[in-house]
Amino acid sequence: MPSSPKSRFLLALALGGALLAGCGKDSGSAPTESEVPLVDADIAEVPATDQLGSFQSPVSGLAFWQHPSAAHESGLFAANGAAGLFLLDFEGNQLAKIDGTFDHGVDVTYFNQGEQAVVIAWDSATDTFRAFGFDEEVPPLIELDLTGFPEKIAGNFCLGREGGQSHFLMVNQVQEDIISGNSYKIKKDGGALQATIISSQSYAPFTDCVRDDKSGETILGRPPEEVLTQNTLQYTAKNAALLKTPSLSGVHFSEEGLHLIAASSEGLFSVVKFRDSLPNQFRVSSFDTASDVESVSTIAIGYGNYGGIYRDGVIAILEGEKSGALKLAPWNAVANAFGFKTGNPVSERSLLTAEEENKAPAPTIDLDELNEPENE
């Protein structure tokens, strides 16, 4: 887990557009060439606002967990190899730890209309997927029984939903020394998870994958490292899309829809509204040294309300070669740089916007009770 105490940068104006170097889409019509260069305007600066510490051993993946009732008490899972699987709060404190060797990433999803959180990671010490559920606000993590899950994988994986109902696992599976990307449907029954392969969906191996939780579409990252192009999103199957990304990828939901974030290992980020042709670029500035983050090994996106300056979402960035400093940056700063809407985030648990969640249910009137004569 992080070995150094967390530092905090108090931003009074971090979320104001004046603080960020302006950079937006070309105001002209969309290019018609097959390859569109990344935006040639100035690259925006997005400040890192929290540092949770540094890792001394490789981290294979990060995933946010959204607290069910107190946004600021949410956390971040880190698959820290042989050191274990950690759940950290935004102060860098350890909320939970699972022993094992977690070196193929980690992901979180929500069952039962967002009420039940489940974290899944591959444990190389046992060569199995392991899953842990927690319904309470401050977990203990309860290990779930798994059936039907892949027995051998290569690289990382991702979880996703389709409208909050059907749940999926996308994984590079090894079968008879052949690696292919396969999709599984997952069902939760009490303390057990059952996985069933979707035989009609098999793809070439991928480097990164994320899912559109509302539509169920899969976005795959594949080498070689290329700039984003006009034809970035190419459908490879009914519910899958191919993303040519510099290195790492994530998604952010808002009332505007889905935004796709890609990061190169050199620390250059690109963000594009889903199916738009022109991405915008930004770098994350390190508040402690006032210099840009120049090396990124892992990112994670939390697109719900995570409290305070993270009320519209949060980006986790791991610097260095999988064992550097772990930093957070607010989605608001990205949104302000490029004119994206804020203020009505989509909950990762319910997939509803803040306005939808806050609508009070219509009052109900019991007509029979209303018509009962008063007691004398």
Write a concise synopsis of the structure shown.
The protein is mostly beta strands and 376 residues long. Helix content is 5%, strand content 45%.
Structural class: mainly beta
Task: List the total number of helices.
Answer: 3
CATH architecture, by name, is 6 Propeller
Main beta sheet: 8 strands, mixed
Cα Rg: 21 Å
Beta-strand percent range:
35-45%
- The CATH H-level homologous superfamily: TolB, C-terminal domain
In total, how many beta strands?
27
What topology does this entry show?
Layout: E1 7-8, E2 44-47, E3 50-54, E4 61-65, E5 75-79, E6 85-89, E7 94-98, E8 102-111, E9 116-123, E10 128-134, E11 142-147, E12 153-162, E13 166-175, E14 178-189, E15 192-203, E16 208-211, E17 218-221, E18 234-237, E19 240-243, E20 248-254, E21 257-263, E22 269-273, E23 280-286, E24 291-292, E25 296-302, E26 314-319, E27 325-330, H1 331-338, H2 354-358, H3 367-371
Parallel strand pairs: 2-23, 11-15, 17-19
Antiparallel strand pairs: 1-3, 3-27, 4-5, 5-6, 6-7, 8-9, 9-10, 10-11, 12-13, 13-14, 14-15, 16-17, 18-19, 20-21, 21-22, 22-23, 23-24, 25-26, 26-27
